[in-house]
Amino acid sequence: MFKQNVIPRYRGFNLLGMFCSNDSKINRGRAPGYFIEEDFKMIADWGFDFVRLPLSYRVWSSAEQPLVINKEKLAPLDMALEYADKYNLHVSINMHRVPGYCINDDEPIPEPFSLWNNDKQAYDALEFQWKTLAERYKNVPSSRLDFDLINEPQYNVLNARQAVIQHKLTKAIRTISPDRTITINGTHTGTMLPTESLHIGDENIVYSLRGYAPQSLTHYGISGTTEGTPIPTWPNSKQVIGCANINWDRAKMDQYHDMWAAASNIYNRGVICNELGCFNKTPHDVVLAWYEDEMASLKEHNIGYAVWNLRGAFGIMDSGRADVDYVDHNGHKLDKKLLELLQRY
Asked: Do the beta carbons of residue 316 and residue 23 sit within 8 Å?
């Protein structure tokens, strides 16, 4: 078994305060830019040391004018970094929606160009966005802040094209912030090693994997209905990938994490699981059993994690599960059993 030993084993949560624009259909009434100091304090008080901030460029720019930034709307991000510093949390800034690409189809105005089809306008806008953030936070040390370039390139995106873009972005950012740690998502929505990107950078490169396997368990009911869909079980939970019907259990988890840890050893890359979690329709006893094995496997491979998310349908608070005995925590409904499980790992 391999172990990741390049970066600290960070443990924490995704915070969604700038995840989408006001116009997004998944906004659900949340004003973008609402990071709350309480969240950072709770995370630290519970013993965690990491927050990932998935961002949409549409919060401070627009599809029509991606080279125009309303810098006042970046103020909540400034505050998030201040809160993180106050509570000694490492921050990963992730561009979840970039000019020309997002894994979510949530905006009424689609991206007017494609990042993956050699669209110069898309790349130029993305580089401009990252260079703006690099300049804004160049005095924040890399030990406190990393840049997570592009969230979850999909299955149909050529690996080589991803690598070219990420290589160019890394060089552009490091003209401003030479020591900045750069995080590169795995291909195939974060599930496969980004092998075409192994040449990028000599150091301070982190690979980000996903902990959503099997999705038949982690995303059960997310389409709004569970009718006709088998209720997930754990272990021995099935998932069809391509022509393969894969049986997921702890041994399969270990095999999956071993692949990433081996790459860390061979290529001197950090590895972290920057998203994992279960939707609120999966039975709670199944969720806890799955999490126990997922957390144990990650720990054995010395791979850190960021749960998606703190509050919400995948989270440990205000998740809306029907089969949880919540406890009150500062006015929030806390899934204490899940929190205590995470704290053990």
From this structure: no
Query: Which DSSP letter does residue 191 get?
Result: T
Q: Tally the C-alpha atoms within 13 A of residue 4's C-alpha that lie toward its C-beta.
A: 30
From 211, 192, 342, 339, select the one nearest 275 (Cα to Cα).
Answer: 211
* pTM greater than the 0.70 cutoff: yes
Tokens of 118: 């050699």
Cα of 170 vs its chain's centroid, Å: 19
Instruction: Say if residue 55 is exposed, middle or buried (CB neighbours under 10 Å; 0-12, 13-18, 19+).
Output: buried
* CATH code reported for the domain at 11-344: 3.20.20.80
Q: What is the pLDDT of residues 223-236, one digit of tens each?
A: 777 767 889 999 97
CA–CA gap between residue 95 and residue 28 (Å, rounded): 20
- The sign of the CA dihedral 333, 296, 95, 241 is negative
